[in-house]
Amino acid sequence: MTVEDLRQLVRTIPDFPKPGILFRDVTTLIGDGPGFAAAVGHMADRAEAAGAEVIAGIEARGFVFGAAMAARMGLPFVPVRKPGKLPVPVLAIDYALEYGTDTLEVDPGAVPDGARVVVIDDLIATGGTALAAVELLRRAGGEVVHSLFAIDLPDLGGAQRLRDAGVPAEALMAFEGH
User: Fold this and answer.
1) Backbone φ/ψ region at 47: left (φ over 0), alpha (ψ -120 to 50), beta
2) Which residues, at least 6 apart from 77, have a Cβ–Cβ distance to it below 8 Å?
3) Does the annotation mark 61 as catalytic?
4) How far apart are CA 152 and CA 173, in angstroms?
């Protein structure tokens, strides 16, 4: 399946969560077996080209893509979690949202020192969550070598923010507008 075929599987919902927003719903891509398998395959190929040794997925849909990629590639998967979900002492980072802050956590022993980590999520918008995940994984001892997303909303600048921070960023598909 081509990337253009995959693009057709992403549902667009106008005026969600507020008027003027075009919500790009990746659940319709995930819900299509052949489409999801193809998306994972395309992303795994890119992660392999980046020299991935560990796949790290950002909660929640980054788990869906990242775990499938890690299994396909035979690599470890590291979940980057929302607060209070891990049963061990954690490394944590607070980061800014449009309105307020949030926190991400990771098990400090989950990333081997110096391992080449590729960060995965379903969508990159402003990049705040992805940048926080990168910093957290670096604190855990990983070398973040790449970031991959199913969807980029380039008008919001998140992928460029990652590149400006020294992390190559790419997505299978981009949708203009937000």
Assistant:
1) alpha
2) 54, 55, 56, 57, 66, 67, 70, 71
3) yes
4) 6
Distance CA 52, CA 21 (A): 34
H or E element, residue 55 = strand 54-58
The reply to whether 4 belongs to the active site is no
Nearest-5° angle of CA 133, CA 10, CA 102? 25
Q: Is 32 exposed, middle or buried (0-12, 13-18, 19+ CB in 10 A)?
A: middle
The pTM (predicted TM-score) of the whole model is: 0.96
pLDDT at 178 over 70: no
The architecture in CATH of the region 3-173 reads 3-Layer(aba) Sandwich (3.40)
- Average pLDDT on 153-178 reads 94
- Residue from 61, 72, 138, 139 carrying the catalytic annotation: 61
Q: Which pLDDT score, from 0 to 100, does residue 97 have?
A: 79
Q: Tell me which amino acid residue 173 is.
A: M
Beta carbons within 10 angstroms of residue 102's beta carbon: 14
What is the Cα–Cα distance from 102 to 166, expressed in whole angstroms?
Answer: 23
Collect all residues with Cβ–Cβ distance below 8 Å to 50 and sequence separation of at least 6: 116, 118, 145, 146, 168
